[in-house]
Design a protein that fits this description.
The chain contains three helices and four strands. The chain is α+β, with helices and mostly antiparallel strands and about 120 residues long. The chain has one domain: Ribosomal Protein S5, domain 2 (2-Layer Sandwich), CATH 3.30.230. Strands 1-2-4-3 form a four-stranded mixed β-sheet, sandwiched between helices.
Amino acid sequence: MVNYSYSRELRLLTPANFSNVFKNPLRAGSPQLTILACTNEFDHPRLGLAVPKKQVKLAVDRNKIKRLLRENFRLNQHDILPLDYVIIAKGGIGKLDNNELNKLTNKLWKKIARRYKEQQQR
């Protein structure tokens, strides 16, 4: 049976984990979200989130966005590549409803996978 938990091992926890992703990332973006990815030494993906107060003013809205992004990651963790990911929220993300945010995130997972495979072929 497939485990869909979101345990501590699936998170980027330290500033060093985040800075590793920011050093030389693969990027996939839209006007509302950017996903950065880089390789890791694990056999599973890990997620970090950055939802700035400058882009999403209210804490309740920031928490909702983070909750939706974590849930999308949790459900797709077995389908995406085993990389370290940082999702950065940008302006306009607060205007998306839950369904649109999920569709956008799924599209960006596929875009990252395609770019990673292209990079590996070089």
